[in-house]
């Protein structure tokens, strides 16, 4: 919607002694951004991460491990396979630990070097790079794309736009297929796709995730970073004056202006010019369309495309590189060199983030290393809490869930302890298949005299479960419960 078509509300004309009324439009149409292609050191790193992250995302579901998919989140069976690790819903604490580690890593990297995650590894950035590359292959460079968008719909425009859209849709669908492949075995999913045999939920998630990729990377692009991503809004809480951010050296660059390429750097001060030639290439390559010369802005994702293109311009003008560079606010203000700025990396905020991150990572790693290869949950049978048998024995019935977290069949021995006279009246040994979970009815009995000695009420009881493969002296896994003596 342009300004002419924006609905406005009429206002009464101000009185002579009143201040002039200014009409402020609450909505302005977003101008489409056509980022210019750039080559350089940071661009190379960005594409290296594009290749690395996509090879990992698309390739990991196809990797096999112990005759199964290496990484599979089997929601139907309630088991999560991560290489040699088998997790159950009861292991949710590990997911919590992983999320906490991810959050603190983001805090740490942001405090040290700004929005490196956003500029180099964020999925939105990665897929936008891929979709832009496809667009450039079909429609040409920035000037050609602008001209094509402004021109009429000719046959040339139809096939270029149509070809681009076809590749975008294919990438989106393959991305959705790969995403679903983490939850449904991807080889089986591939066979279903060839036979058009997807179930309703598989169709939904493949299309949903594919459409999200297509829409976010193909059309919304910088709008996601500027308006939808919450990180852009609270990043300032993690920045300080010693954070390395993409910075424009105002003292070197201003006053900016064009000049002949033959103008020597030594004569700039005499002519009252800075080193910035006002070519605006730093704006043209920016994926969010900002002018870095205006200072730090929340829209800046730290991709460093402006650094690459500005260094190229400085080389052509025979000026030193670094007019736009990674620097700290203190470093620019106090004219520090790079080594002096890097010395400020180990400041209290960074040390606290690092200490917390190391502690949580160590705790999570230790917990996983010491994790038992099986789990047991005890649930009382609510249909028969306690009863007295014909021979006077007092019986309580329980349900034990034995979860085998190893990838081989195991035999488990169940025993009862902690209650005088208690004996197990059901089968003591049970076989559980690889990565299986079994529910077992278990009854515990005590003689009448033991019941009279204990008295009416609930009394503590322990179930001790050992794995046969661990040997006779192995430490059992213990689960607490209670034994009820009825009136």
Task: Report on this structure.
The protein has 2 domains: 32-371, no CATH class; 374-485, Immunoglobulin-like (Sandwich). The termini are far apart. With 487 residues, the protein is α+β, with helices and mostly antiparallel strands. Mean pLDDT is 88; it is low at 1-11. It has helices spanning 41-59, 92-113, 116-121, 123-139, 142-150, 155-180, 186-194, 200-220, 222-228, 231-234, 250-253, 268-271, 281-284, 305-317, 329-334, 338-342, 348-369, 448-454; strands spanning 64-65, 68-69, 71-74, 79-82, 85-87, 245-248, 324-327, 374-380, 387-388, 394-404, 410-417, 423-424, 429-432, 437-446, 457-467, 477-485. Helix 1 (41-59) crosses helix 4.
How much helix, percentage-wise, in residues?
40-55%
Number of structurally distinct domains: 2
Q: Compute the separation of the termini in Å.
A: 79 Å
Shape: elongated
Keywords:
16 strands, alpha+beta, single chain, 2 domains, 487 residues, 18 helices, 18% strand, Immunoglobulin-like, disordered N terminus, 5-stranded antiparallel beta sheet, 4-stranded antiparallel beta sheet
């Amino acid at each position: 919607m342009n300004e002419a078509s924006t609905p406005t509300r009429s206002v009464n004309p101000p009185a002579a002694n009143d201040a002039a009324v200014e009409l402020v439009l609450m909505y302005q149409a977003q101008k489409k951004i056509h980022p210019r292609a750039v080559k350089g050191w940071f661009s190379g790193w960005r594409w290296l991460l594009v290749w690395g992250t996509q090879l990992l995302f698309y390739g990991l579901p196809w990797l096999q491990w112990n005759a199964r998919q290496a990484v599979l989140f089997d929601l139907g069976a309630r088991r999560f396979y991560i290489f040699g690790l088998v997790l159950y819903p009861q292991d949710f604490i590990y997911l919590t630990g992983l999320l906490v580690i991810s959050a603190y890593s983001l805090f740490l990297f942001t405090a040290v070097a700004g929005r490196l995650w956003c500029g180099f590894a964020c999925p939105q950035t990665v897929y936008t790079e891929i979709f832009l590359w496809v667009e450039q292959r079909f429609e040409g460079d920035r000037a050609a794309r602008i001209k094509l968008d402004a021109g009429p719909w000719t046959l040339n425009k139809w096939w270029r736009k149509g070809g681009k859209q076809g590749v975008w849709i294919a990438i989106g669908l393959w991305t959705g297929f790969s995403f679903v492949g983490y939850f449904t075995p991807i080889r089986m999913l591939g066979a279903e796709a060839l036979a058009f045999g997807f179930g309703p939920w598989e169709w939904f998630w493949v299309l949903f995730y594919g459409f999200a990729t297509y829409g976010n990377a193909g059309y919304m692009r910088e709008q996601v970073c500027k308006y939808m991503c919450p990180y852009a809004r609270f990043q300032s809480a993690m920045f300080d004056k010693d954070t390395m951010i993409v910075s424009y050296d105002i003292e070197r660059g201003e006053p900016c202006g064009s000049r002949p390429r033959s103008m020597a750097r030594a004569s700039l001060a005499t002519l009252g010019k800075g080193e910035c030639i006002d070519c605006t290439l730093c704006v043209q390559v920016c994926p969010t369309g900002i002018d870095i010369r205006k200072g730090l802005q929340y829209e800046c994702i730290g991709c460093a495309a402006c650094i690459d293109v500005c260094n190229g311009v400085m080389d052509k003008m025979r000026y030193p590189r670094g007019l736009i560079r990674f620097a700290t606010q203190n470093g620019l203000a106090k004219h520090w060199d790079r080594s002096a700025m890097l010395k400020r990396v180990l400041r209290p905020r960074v040390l606290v983030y690092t200490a917390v991150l190391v502690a949580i990572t160590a705790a999570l790693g230790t917990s996983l290393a010491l994790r038992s290869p099986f789990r047991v949950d005890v649930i009382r049978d609510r249909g028969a809490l306690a009863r007295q048998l014909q021979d006077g024995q007092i019986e309580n019935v329980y349900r034990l869930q034995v979860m085998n977290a190893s990838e081989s069949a195991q035999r488990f021995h169940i025993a009862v302890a902690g209650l005088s006279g208690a004996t197990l009246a059901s089968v003591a040994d049970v076989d559980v298949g690889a990565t299986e979970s079994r529910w077992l009815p278990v009854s515990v009995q005590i003689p009448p005299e033991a019941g009279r000695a204990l008295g009416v009420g609930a009394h503590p009881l322990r179930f001790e479960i050992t794995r046969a493969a661990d040997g006779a002296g192995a430490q059992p896994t213990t689960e607490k419960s209670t034994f009820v003596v009825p009136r």
